[in-house]
Amino acid sequence: MKDATIMLRVTTEQKLAIKRMARKQGMTITEFMLFNMMKSISKSELSEINGDIDLNLESKE
């Protein structure tokens, strides 16, 4: 069961672009954003495994 919410603040122009792209894919905005976030996470995880990028977001002070 999905019970978590993520809110994202965007400009009106960004929202319209996201809506347009989602429609082209036959998805709702929520489906489109979730699909693309999960795709990005997957790519980042693969890059981390391959040693391409550092995903450690902790402060390095």
Structure, explained:
This protein is mostly helical and 61 residues long. The chain has a domain at 12-49. It is 56% helix and 0% strand. The chain is built from two helices and no strands. It has helices at 12-24, 29-49. Helix 1 (12-24) crosses helix 2. The radius of gyration is 15 Å and the shape is elongated. It starts with 11 loop residues before the first helix and ends in a 12-residue tail after the last helix. The model has no long low-confidence stretch (mean pLDDT 86). It holds the Pfam family NikA-like.
Specify the biggest β-sheet.
none
The number of helical elements comes to 2
Radius of gyration from the alpha-carbon trace, in angstroms: 15 Å
- The total beta strand count reads 0
Helix content, binned percent: 55-70%
Percent of residues in beta strands?
under 5%
- Quick check: average pLDDT? 86
* H-E order: HH
Distance separating the two termini: 39 Å
Specify the overall morphology: elongated
Q: Which regions have little confidence, pLDDT < 50, spanning 5+ residues?
A: none
Class by SSE composition: mainly alpha
Protein name: Antitoxin
Organism: Clostridium beijerinckii (Clostridium MP)
Describe this structure in a few short sentences.
This is Antitoxin. This protein is mostly helical and about 60 residues long. The chain is built from 2 helices and no strands.
Explain the layout of strands and helices.
Blueprint: H1 12-24, H2 29-49
Helix pairs in contact: 1-2
